């Protein structure tokens, strides 16, 4: 089962991808996470990506395609994967189709998390991430048990550089210009499944489960 989780910044792609990983035992491929770890490790790729990410711009297609190509052929993707934050442009979507064709694979569903802009700004401004294990939180909707500390490993929670308000506005504009056209692209391909991403995290999980169960039939 090969999935794309689609939606604007802060729609809940990462949150729901973790649920899919835990429930269906397929890996999450998050281009954002891979780029952030390259930035942290100061690799050549990270040096290219850093400024672009901090400004809310997209990293060039060929750079992102390079990391997806390397990741998607690994053995843990043999039974499927959930793409989070990729593709983000029409050329990325075209290239993904070619990559999958060469592997005799195809995308089963593109799950679009539809959320209004006002909710997105609130979600991103309240988002915190563990500085050590990367677990995500929200100050209001998914707070840690002890303020500012990770429930899983106890490390400090931090705010992402690109979650500052002015960068968020730019990320939303970039999404509208470059990524939103993919909705029509996947609608035409008959793959787009709309989900109301504005509700509670657990309600969205239920909706996603229904879409996926439609795909694999007898999964519990
Ligand atoms: P990336 O990391 O992919 O960021 P994004 O797409 O902007 O998405 P986010 O991670 O911000 O949000 P999300 O939808 O995962 O929401 P989350 O679950 O965390 O990309 C970052 C940058 O990398 C890009 O700007 C670009 O520069 C570069 N990049 C990445 N991929 C690229 C590509 N393919 N091509 C080119 N460049 C690329 O939720 C947000 C918050 O809300 C959390 O605090 C969460 O707890 C909370 N929350 C989630 N769901 C709910 C809910 N239902 N109700 C209340 N709160 C909720």
Explain this structure to me?
The protein is of the alpha/beta class. It has a domain at 2-26 and 79-115 and 169-217: P-loop containing nucleotide triphosphate hydrolases (Rossmann fold). Helices cover 49% and strands 15% of the residues. It contains 9 helices and 8 strands. The strands form 2 sheets. Strands 2-3-1-4-8 form a 5-stranded parallel beta sheet, with helices on both faces. Helix 2 (31-40) packs across helix 3 (44-55) and helix 6 (117-126) packs across helix 7 (165-179). It is globular. Bound molecules: BIS(adenosine)-5'-pentaphosphate (AP5). BIS(adenosine)-5'-pentaphosphate (AP5) binds next to helix 1, helix 2, helix 3, helix 6 and strand 6.
Strand content range: 5-15%
Largest sheet composition: 5 strands, parallel
Name the hetero compounds present.
BIS(adenosine)-5'-pentaphosphate
Total number of helical segments?
9
**Derived structural class:** alpha/beta
Q: On the 0-100 scale, what is the average pLDDT? A: 94
Question: SSE layout and pairings?
Answer:
Elements: E1 2-6, H1 13-24, E2 28-30, H2 31-40, H3 44-55, H4 61-72, E3 81-84, H5 90-102, E4 109-114, H6 117-126, E5 127-130, E6 136-138, E7 157-158, H7 165-179, H8 181-188, E8 192-196, H9 201-216
The chain binds BIS(adenosine)-5'-pentaphosphate (AP5).
Put the structure in a nutshell.
The chain is an alpha/beta fold. It has helices at 13-24, 31-40, 44-55, 61-72, 90-102, 117-126, 165-179, 181-188, 201-216, and strands at 2-6, 28-30, 81-84, 109-114, 127-130, 136-138, 157-158, 192-196. It is globular.
């Amino acid at each position: 089962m090969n999935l794309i989780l689609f939606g604007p910044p802060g729609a809940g792609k990462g949150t729901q991808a973790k649920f899919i990983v835990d429930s269906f035992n397929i890996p999450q491929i998050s281009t954002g996470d891979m780029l952030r770890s390259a930035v942290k490790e100061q690799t050549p790729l990270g040096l290219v990506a850093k400024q672009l990410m901090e400004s809310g711009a997209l990293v060039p297609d060929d750079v992102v395609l390079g990391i997806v190509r390397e990741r998607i052929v690994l053995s843990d993707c043999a039974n499927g994967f959930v793409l989070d934050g990729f593709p983000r442009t029409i050329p990325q979507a075209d290239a993904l189709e070619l990559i999958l064709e060469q592997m005799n694979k195809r995308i089963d569903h593109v799950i679009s998390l539809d959320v209004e802009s006002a909710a997105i700004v609130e979600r991103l401004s309240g988002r915190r991430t563990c500085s050590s294990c990367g677990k995500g939180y929200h100050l209001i909707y998914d707070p840690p048990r002890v303020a500012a500390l990770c429930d899983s490993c106890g490390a400090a929670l931090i705010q992402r550089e690109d979650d500052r308000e002015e960068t968020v506005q730019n990320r939303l504009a970039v999404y509208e210009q470059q990524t939103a056209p993919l909705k029509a692209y996947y609608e035409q391909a008959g793959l787009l499944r709309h989900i109301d991403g504005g509700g509670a995290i657990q309600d969205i999980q239920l909706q996603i489960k229904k879409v996926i169960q439609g795909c694999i039939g007898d999964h519990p």
